[in-house]
Amino acid sequence: MKPGSDMDIRDIKALVDIPDWSHYLLWGAAAVVLVALGWLLYRLLSNLLAHRKVNEEKILLEKLYAINWSDPKKAAYEATKYGRALAKDDRRKELFSQLLPLLERYKYRKSVERVDSETLRAFELYRRVCDESI
Asked: What is the largest CA-CA distance in the chain?
């Protein structure tokens, strides 16, 4: 064999497999980014939907403002119904407990007189406190 022939080259080794983890790192990073984006999207949508909800207390307060006192019996029932639903904290519960006996005079009877000023004043106070609380 001649020194320049192909059979004489002995320093070339076989190819060595080098572990390549880069595609796993790429997919892992993509998964982390997708999870983070999904979480941010969820938080954004939940906040938007939470602010779109109709506040039940505001609806009940509007119904309290819409009570027509020309029919005292019906008005007393409505004021009791909506007032009880709005009495959630201690202050409103206390005011409602003071208003309830005044409203009882106009319920459970066949005919009732006009609403007196004391009842209207107590109702206005309760309604104003509810309006401030909401």
From this structure: 131
Q: What is the DSSP string of 47-89?
A: HHHHHHS--HHHHHHHHHHT--TTSHHHHHHHHHHHHHHH--S
Cα 53 from Cα 64, distance rounded (Å) = 20
pLDDT tens-digit map of 95-124: 999 999 999 999 998 889 999 999 999 999
Query: How many CB atoms are closer than 10 A to CB 73?
Result: 15
Name the residue ranges covered by the structural domains of the chain: 17-53, 56-133
Q: List % helix, strand, coil for the chain (3-state, nearest 5).
A: 70, 0, 30
Q: What is the mean pLDDT of residues 54-71?
A: 92
User: Alpha-carbon distance 117 to 94, whole Å?
Assistant: 20
